[in-house]
Write a structure and sequence with these properties.
This protein is an alpha/beta fold. The chain contains 10 helices and 9 strands. It has 2 domains: about 120 residues, Rossmann fold (3-Layer(aba) Sandwich), CATH 3.40.50.10090; about 120 residues, Rossmann fold (3-Layer(aba) Sandwich), CATH 3.40.50. About 40% of the residues lie in helices and about 20% in strands. Helix 6 links the parallel strand 6 and strand 7. It is an enzyme of class 4 (lyase).
Length: about 250
C-alpha cells in the first residue's frame, strides 16, 4: 500500500498540487520534481483571437488549453459562444468554472472517443476550432478533417525542464523513489530524455500512467508500466497504485 511510499510527481509545477494532495490522503510522501514546463505560446494566431467565436464548435483537449485560452481572450465576451466539447471531466469543470456551457464530454477521456461522439453532431463543412498545446497529438484533426473544416489553435507550449535532470538521476540512483507517476506523454518523454545514457535501474520502482496514451508512450520508450487505471483521472490512478502495492504486499 501507499503508506510511507515516496512517490515522484513529474507533472508541471502549477498542476502538481492536486496529485500531491491525493497521495498524501493515502499516507504517501509526494516528491515533486516537474519534468516539464508549460507556458503561453510565444506566437499566437492573432486572427483567431478575433474569430474564435465564429466557429461552429470549439474543442478543448486539456485544462491547460482552457487556462491559456482564457488568458488570451481576456475580457473579450462574444455575443454568442460556439458549441463546446471537452475531452474529459477535469477539462469540462475548468470550463464550467468560467460559466461556459459544455455541450459534449465523451465517455472515455481520450481523443478517439471524442471523435466518435462529435461526428454525428457535425453538419457537412462544420467549422471546428481545436484549442491545444504544441505537443498535442494530431488524432482529432486527422479524424475530423474528413467531415469538417478543422483549425488548430496552439495556445500553450510544453518544454522539457532540463534543470530537473541531476535531481532525478540522484533520486533514482540512490533508490529514494518507490513509485513514478506520469500524467502525460510529455512527462514520459522528458523522463526518458533525462535518464538516457545514465546508469539507471528501474526494476525497484512501480510506474503508473494516467491513461492508455501515456502508457503506450512509456512502453514505446522502453519504460515498463505497472499501473494504468480504467478511468483516466488522478484519483483513479492513485487508488490503482494503492491496490497494486497492497496485492504485492509492499
Amino acid at each position: 500500500m501507499l503508506m510511507g511510499k515516496r512517490v515522484l510527481v513529474t507533472r508541471e509545477k502549477a498542476q502538481a498540487k492536486a496529485l500531491s494532495q491525493t497521495l498524501e490522503r493515502y499516507g504517501a510522501i509526494p516528491v515533486e520534481l516537474p519534468l516539464i514546463r508549460i507556458e503561453r505560446a510565444k506566437q499566437v494566431g492573432q486572427d483567431l483571437l478575433h474569430k474564435w467565436h465564429t466557429f461552429d464548435w470549439i474543442v478543448f483537449t486539456s485544462q491547460n488549453g482552457v487556462k491559456y485560452f482564457f488568458e488570451l481572450i481576456s475580457e473579450m465576451k462574444p455575443p454568442t459562444w460556439p458549441k463546446v466539447a471537452a475531452v474529459g471531466e477535469k477539462t469540462a469543470k475548468a470550463l464550467q468554472k468560467r460559466n461556459v456551457v459544455v455541450d459534449l464530454i465523451p465517455n472515455e477521456f481520450v481523443a478517439e472517443s471524442l471523435v466518435e461522439a462529435l461526428k454525428p453532431l457535425l453538419s457537412t463543412h462544420a467549422r471546428v476550432l481545436l484549442v491545444k498545446g504544441n505537443l498535442a497529438r494530431d488524432t482529432l484533426r486527422e479524424q475530423l478533417s474528413s467531415i469538417a473544416d478543422v483549425t488548430d489553435w496552439i495556445v500553450y507550449e510544453t518544454t522539457m525542464n532540463e534543470e530537473a535532470k541531476p535531481q532525478l538521476i540522484a533520486l533514482l540512483q540512490q533508490r529514494m523513489i518507490d513509485v513514478v507517476t506520469f500524467t502525460s506523454s510529455s512527462t514520459v518523454h522528458s523522463f526518458a530524455h533525462a535518464i538516457a545514457g545514465e546508469d539507471i535501474n528501474l526494476s525497484f520502482v512501480t510506474i503508473a500512467c494516467i491513461g492508455p496514451i501515456t502508457k503506450q508512450t512509456a512502453l514505446d520508450l522502453g519504460i515498463p508500466v505497472h499501473v494504468c487505471p480504467h478511468t483516466y483521472t488522478i484519483d483513479a490512478m492513485v487508488e490503482e497504485i494503492n491496490q497494486y502495492l497492497k496485492i504485492r504486499g509492499e
